[in-house]
Amino acid sequence: MKDVFELNFPLLNEMMTTVRLAVGGVCAMKGMDLDASEDCKVCVTESLLLLKHRGYLNAHVRFYEDGGLRVRISGEGEGKAENTSEDEISLALLNALLSNLETEEEDGKLSAFTFACGEQA
Amino acid sequence: MTENELFARYRETGDVAVRNLIVEKYLYIAAIIAKKFVGRGVEYDDLYQVASLALIKGVDRFDERKGLKFSTFITPTITGEIKNYFRDRSRLIHLPRKVSELRTRIEQASEELTHELGRKPSAAEIADRLSVTEEEVLMSAEAGGVVSLDRPSGEEDLSFYEVIPDDSDVFERLETHEELSAALKELSDAERTVVDYRFRQELSQADTARKLGVSQMYVSRMERRILQKLRERLKKSMAE
């Protein structure tokens, strides 16, 4: 995949299934095995949930090639933040599944995640 | 009692009751993580089971003096155990793609021919329909079947279970078997029923709960209690 594949969508729970399907499609196109593809789906959805809980209204997911498949997930728009104890677990899960997680902050709150999927994860 | 106080108390006393308290308190983490891995061909109940066991092991290993929060410590532990579980499952023998595809075609042809002939077709008729040899049909039919370990192996009167080689020492296994039988006798009738459903018939916790007319949570708790009892009984008999 030489080109970039991007998704822009409102951060709503009902969007997650569609996003998972799209992630699965990109992973399949890259020839990843099912397990790696499932891990990538989990990481993307967990990142989206973390952004949603921080009050972002929209998400931008960008898949690109950089020595393997990489994903950048960022939040946009200002909404109401939610307090949930599950965030800590989500972050720990991302760190457990990925060895290359990069996070960005905006005004002290997490605003973007970047990681590699597949063998580089 | 705070998280750190609980762990400190467990570390100092080794009291199983304290450990159970900690496990109950954090069982929700096992449930959350297990849910994230649903959809990969393993039932939620089984994932929850793997996650719960990882939680118990994690409680034993956690050292609150290192300053890490338990949830941060346990999440990778549980995730790792679940991933290992998937890895072990994928090591099971898979049929070659060609064989599994032929099996599907055989099933379809068999259905069609049954409809056309008004009786079940022979292997030769199926082979003819699919333009493959009769031998290929017979081998494919044989290859994918699930075989009971109790089925006669063809060697004297022995079952497959008795002739398949085992890495573990046979005498050690016999001894464990005897100890386990003795330990099972000490369980109540209800507990033995749960053991039968869950470990002999291999029903899920949800199916066991349905059969017993209780909640899945009840079965889960009972199972934990049973395993704890058996573990302690076996430990004791090993020490003797």
Put the structure in a nutshell.
Chain A is 38% helix and 29% strand. With 121 residues, chain A is α+β, with helices and mostly antiparallel strands.
Structure write-up:
The complex is a heterodimer of chains A (121) and B (240). By secondary structure, chain A is α+β, with helices and mostly antiparallel strands. Chain A has a single domain (2-116), classed as Histidine kinase-like ATPase, C-terminal domain (Heat Shock Protein 90, 2-Layer Sandwich). Chain A has three helices and five strands; from the N terminus they run E-H-H-E-E-H-E-E. Chain A is globular, with a radius of gyration of 13 Å. Chain B is an all-alpha fold. Chain B has twelve helices and no strands. In chain B, helix 2 packs across helix 3 (44-61), helix 5 packs across helix 7 and helix 6 crosses helix 7. Chain B is elongated and about 75 Å long. The two termini of chain B are 37 Å apart. Classes of the chains: A alpha+beta (121), B mainly alpha (240). At the A-B interface, helix 2 and helix 3 of A face helix 2 and helix 4 of B.
Write the layout of secondary structure elements.
The complex is a heterodimer of chains A (121) and B (240).
Chain A: E1 5-10, H1 16-29, H2 34-53, E2 58-65, E3 69-76, H3 86-97, E4 102-106, E5 109-116
Antiparallel strand pairs in A: 1-2, 2-3, 3-5, 4-5
Chain B: H1 3-13, H2 16-36, H3 44-61, H4 70-90, H5 97-117, H6 123-130, H7 134-143, H8 160-163, H9 170-185, H10 189-200, H11 205-212, H12 216-239
